[in-house]
Amino acid sequence: MSVPEPAVHVAFLTSAGMGHLKPCLRLLSVFLRHGCKVTLIIPKPTVTLAESNLISRLCSSFPHQVTQIDFNLTPLDPTTVNATNDPFFLQYETIRRSVHLLSPILSSLSTSLSAFVVDAFLVSPILPIIEKMTCPSYIQFTSSARMLSFLAYVSVLADSDSAAQPHPTKFVGDAIQIPGIKLPIPRSSVPPPFLLEGTNSFQRMIMQDSPNLKKHDGVFMNSFEELEGEALAALNEGKVVKGLPPVYGIGPLMACEFENVDESQKGCMSWILERLNERAEGSVVYVSLGNRTETRRDQIKDMALGLIACGYSFVWVVKLKRVDREEDEGLEDVLGSELMSKLREKGVVVKEFVDQIKILEHPAVGGFVTHGGWNSVTEAIGEGVKILIWPQGADQKFNAELLRNSGVGIWAEEWGWGTQKVVEGKEIAKRIKEMMSNECLRVKAREMKDAARKACGVGGSCEVIIKRLIEEWKRNA
Ligand code: UDP
Ligand code: UDP
């Protein structure tokens, strides 16, 4: 009698914000497609409505294959976290401090785990938990291989500093030259909280996580050879830091069926798509700064003027509040009725959460003005859309350097971080025209799209890696 093959069971632990949840659920879907049983552990309550809606759609699409487990967080006293009022950051901190509550959840699982995949923000806090587990642990890194190289290399930089307590403001020089990676990282591109005087939680997290990456069994990256071959190789060949676990380029993680919204809940998407249907191929600019960046009040008017003057139609998603649950103002109150009607003559402006992929994949969309969040960047690449990047914070300047270097995007470097100054409407119009009319960008974006589709398609690098891992886990079961 043949013994049934052990089922492969993978658990995922996500953190906060769509920028972490979407890639987690897309990777989870890849494992579902390969016949694995999946458990999704969700920190509750979620920060945004967009997150809870997406989780509900996944679970109702796969009622039998996905087990959803709530990870009820211990509320955090915000006064115990220094210098932040960012609700996403507070959630990371709450998750990090509630992690000990995971042990009973994990030991109550009905089938043993083949692998545990945890979000990038949990590299260190999860260690005491995984030490008690028998299955391998993987980090799902939500940023680029360039950012992972920075994260891994920071501990080497700190160790080379002779000060008793090395501080990033001192050991980060004018530029960081990471071994194996040609393009240096200028000091001005480093995520701003890392270079603040004193200490903050971001610095603590990076410094703690940097040496701890080695304690995991692998890192999943939403990236691929043609986009970041050099950094992926440098990481995997031990050039950046010796002893890192395998870094798996399983990207680009493409949108999945379950992300589709019901007809009844489509809201503004229906008419955005109708408007796009009326436009010529490649003639519309899509503008969005991601799901957690509120457009600065003093910048909104110039953004509007820039779009009106750029000569192209547009879809502009404005976020007035960082967290969607708190949106309470109308766009007209902020922009004024005159500007609103001028905007509506030329394009579409909304403040709702949109289905970004549906916009990017529409043939009328030719360019994307983005803050450069890694998901937005990889989604645009997957759809062959040219990019104008305006970094607002975090790792986004790393992404800007990478895009400029690979020829699929331009970087409005002179605008600095989005938080630094008000960029005038005419400057914005100029840069949009430059992106939209640039034929080399269009060709390069098309080539990168083909490479992206190959990487995530049948027989591509993602499939090869996932199949190999599944076989390995089965052997070790
Ligand atoms: N997103 C979306 N609709 C919106 C805003 C964002 O679908 O109105 C999605 C976007 O497609 C991406 C994610 O939310 O998958 C945002 O992640 P990213 O890394 O680009 O930026 P973040 O929001 O984390 O800064
Ligand atoms: N952040 C922080 N402390 C943390 C984690 C994040 O202050 O422990 C802030 C920081 O300002 C950073 C931002 O959150 O710039 C977003 O971090 P990241 O880009 O890594 O998250 P993502 O955009 O991928 O959600």
TrEMBL record:
This is Coniferyl-alcohol glucosyltransferase. CDD domains: GT1_Gtf-like. One of its GO terms (molecular function) is UDP-glucosyltransferase activity. It comes from the Eukaryota. Transmembrane segments: none annotated. Keywords: Glycosyltransferase, Transferase. Belongs to the UDP-glycosyltransferase family. Pfam families: UDPGT. InterPro entries: UDP-glycosyltransf_plant (IPR050481), UDP_glucos_trans (IPR002213).
